[in-house]
Amino acid sequence: MQKCGDRVVFPFKQRTAYNDPLLFIPARSATFTSSELITVDNDVTVIDHPLIQHKLTLMRRKDASTQDFRSLMREVAHLLAYEITRDLPITHARIETPLAGMDAPMLAGKKLCFVAILRAGIGLLEGMIELLPSARVGHVGLYRDPDTLVAVEYYYKVPNDIADRLVIVVDPMLATGNSAIAAVQRLKERGADRVRFICLLAAPEGITAFRAAHPDVPLFTAAIDERLNDHGYILPGLGDAGDRLYGTK
Ligand code: URA
Questions:
Q1: Which pTM was predicted?
Q2: What CATH number is attached to the domain comprising 161?
Q3: Does ligand 1 have an atom closer than 6 angstroms to the CB of 234?
């Protein structure tokens, strides 16, 4: 493990398979409580900020109310957006403060598009666009066939110039990976070639499947849980993110 500023990075030769239970179960938090970012693979990053971990724990609790769950999702989205946008290019603009002129840093472009996977992705999206209010937004509607767990598309609407934008696909849960894989595939078909995927919780199975399908798409998550259950839900997880956001169960 190496420390690079506030990042903790596994050197390539030591990087550990993300389906290694020793890395991802509670022992990990004892080792890494002070880290912010853990790169477990060249393109799998766990955003391990203590505030995010604390809020995620509150969200996981089965007695969290719909209202609490929703507002925690928004707060975590702010914190995640802060981390995944750290490398956005900066330019300088001439401005006048009340005391002097200066060349002040600003975001270089507005070529950003969030794509929410319906419906739970909306919860994460809303917090993110509060930080980046000029970002464009696309929506991909996918549901999981309960028997096959295959992602079935029922809605697709993204900006026409998606190919010119950095695309950040958001979905709180990366479970089997089928929805994320299908959504990114559709975006690539429309010409998107700079895509990132961000979720709150990922299952090792989903990470493996997603990385195999889209090795060029960096993946960010706040936590990697233990495994999927027989119905494709993440364990220990937080339940059905859509139902918990919207109080539908
Ligand atoms: N979708 C959810 O909302 N929760 C899971 O655990 C898996 C997929």
A1: 0.82
A2: 3.40.50.2020
A3: yes
